[in-house]
Amino acid sequence: MVGLPVDASDTHHPPGPAGNKITTVGPRADGAGLLVGTQDGLLGATALAGVPVTVQTRVAAAPATRWDDSAPWWGGAAWRNATTGGGCSTGFGVFQEGPRGSSPPRTAATSTTPRPTRPGSRWASSAPATPAPTPCCFSGASGGRVFNNSTDANGNVVSEFSNQVIGASASQVGNWVCTSGAYSGTRCSIQVKARDLCINVRDFGQVCGQVQAENTLRTNAVGQGDSGGPVEIVNAANTLQVWATGTNTAIDDTFTSTTCTGYRPTGRVCAWRFYYEDIFSGMAGVGASGVVLG
Question: d(Cα 94, Cα 292) in Å, to the nearest integer?
């Protein structure tokens, strides 16, 4: 099993408003003093440090997070329904009919979540807790990265980062995988137990092409809100990289329910056994030709 390290290259999102007047500080590249960034300018900044100071204005920084994503969209971000307030998670980016998109399982459903769109490209829907039979996609640019995070011993989020997607890998029994839902956050120590299953999803019916996986520590693997999110295999040779291997579909909340973790640890149902659609089965279901690489 391989854990996920921090990747500091999470820079694709545009800056937003910050709360402090001084937004950045560091040495000038020529070594001739400090470089200070501010939102609107800071009178007297050059006199505060005792060394030469160069002041930049209109500089701000805001985190790119699962819950505040922007184009190009990444896997593992929160996707909210503007009408109901419910939500799920976005999947891996895929090429669908030429343009880019995100790969949903076949059981993906529509959402009314408003997102900026760009004609000519597509990205993904994800599956809600109760699947619907028809896949859907949204217009928008997707990127070849996936959100991940580190946690403490109780599953609380400590830091967030992203990982490069380097390809797709079929799910095999015995594989060690991680999930990356927007609600539970990154969960590892998960092993594939069976594949090519047809499962009967409560209040929906039969869904085939599914993989069964279990958290071997009997702690949270996937919970409500994580449906549609990525299942990934960490590259042991470079743990900043992952392979896309599946998309979360359903949980066994009857026999394996457990304490939730991550960004929304309360008010949800989580489980240590879950089912996901193999990435190749999912791509076939939406006519995708391959995953978007980072």
Answer: 5
186 to 8, 136, 146, 149, 252: CA distances (angstroms): 17, 25, 10, 6, 19
d(CA 146, CA 143) in angstroms, rounded, equals 8
Domains of the chain, each with CATH number or no CATH: 22-56 (no CATH), 73-291 (2.40.10.10)
| Burial profile 230-268: b = 16 or more Cβ within 10 angstroms, e = fewer | bbbbbbeeeebbbbbbbbbbbbbbeebbbebbbbbbeeb
Confidence of residue 199 (pLDDT cuts 50, 70, 90): confident
Backbone angles phi, psi at 47, to 5 degrees: -95, -5
What is the per-residue DSSP string for 224-239? TT-TT-EEEEE-TT-T
Q: Which of 86-90, 193-197, 245-249 has the lowest mean pLDDT?
A: 86-90
